[in-house]
Amino acid sequence: MQNVEWEIKGDKLIIEIDLTKDFGPSKSGKTITIASTRGNQKIEGTNAVIGLNVYKYPEDV
What we know:
β4 and β5 (49-50) form a beta hairpin. By secondary structure, the chain is mostly beta strands. It contains no helices and six strands. The chain has one domain (5-56). The protein is elongated, with a radius of gyration of 13 Å.
């Protein structure tokens, strides 16, 4: 995972992402990756799965 942290509090999944970070262009080159689970991830202790991508468009678009 890149720049993604989570915890379970009761019945809620709390996700934390630092929006000031970036990891360069996406594979397509159209966006800039901020955070990703890099595919689907099982959420330990549950039967839930998460797949998350956070991105932004380059400022010159």
